[in-house]
# Entry
Amino acid sequence: MLYQAEPRPDEEEIRRFRQQLAKSQKGARYDSTSNPAPRTFQSLQIDLKFVPPLAKLVQSQRQVMSMRILVSGVSGPIGTALLPSLKGAGCSVERLVRGRAANDNDMQISWDPAQPITPQAVSGFDAVIHLAGESIFGRWTESKKAKIRDSRVAGTLHLSQALAEAEEKPQVFISGSAIGYYGNRGQEALSEESAPGTGFLADVCQQWEEATTPSVQADIRTVHLRTGIVLSPRGGALGAMLLPFKLGLGGRTGDGRQWMSWIDVRDMVGAIHHILKNDLIQGAVNMVAPAPVRNREFAETLAGVLSRPAIFPMPAFAVKTIFGEMGEELLLSSQKVEPGKLVASGYPFRYRDLRASLEALLRA
# Structure
């Protein structure tokens, strides 16, 4: 639940809180001189009158262990990494699964994203993390596009409505989104406050985020994970690239100048833990590393880590011919995204460098 309004803290109190918050993050380094407190709270778009007592906020950093959490989309690259991390932290985790729940040791709740879910089924959780959605990979036929849109928008709306009507509402609802929200933006640096773009994915992401309106209106802290390219060898974009690059057939896509905003799956998981623990974080959060790279650099780095050349580029016309609209929006679009809220709130990225991330993932 959101805290009740508290007296506005002065700047010295904010500075002390920032120092306490930085210390509570293992290995965090936080420069309050270059990033002063008033700017931090402004970037989070939160009125200071809603800041709870500072001691209570710092204490909340350590409360994840006692949480009861409901998670959807656990079969994807993010979910398969997140689930064991939550259990390892001592959380009680239940899975929201499509179809009939399996008879195994995991606690499961069955649902159909296309249909409403009862408020009773989702009542009593401290946090709900909603990651479910149709894969965006594959040629975008009209049928495929409908599945991409409906699996995200309808499922999120039904879950959000149920949470809003639940007798025991969660403290936080973390819902998926993507940096596709920004569309193709060339060289523009993009923050959480940047305007939405145009195109199919941009439209889907806007509807996806708007679908959480019931939970927002019910005073549930709601977060939209605007996720970049998640680096995981178990699927997603990196999983699709591994085979051609291992065969020495990799290279840049198009002219290679488009920006790629990536995040290591371990930082994706770590940032979700960070959001669970930080009551100040709400709204859109860019889930990307602080150092985006151009497509050419990404291809050369991946090839180098695999000890292969990167000499087989895929021209833009070939991308459009083979992949159609999907290729234009996913492979040729440029999005230079900054993780403003994660940095401002002191999240200590493990992998800021692309090569270090790929080496750790692929040489483990």
Remarks:
- Residues 1-9, 21-62 have pLDDT under 50 and may be disordered.
- The chain has 14 helices and 13 strands.
- The CA atoms of residues 259 and 294 lie 4 Å apart.
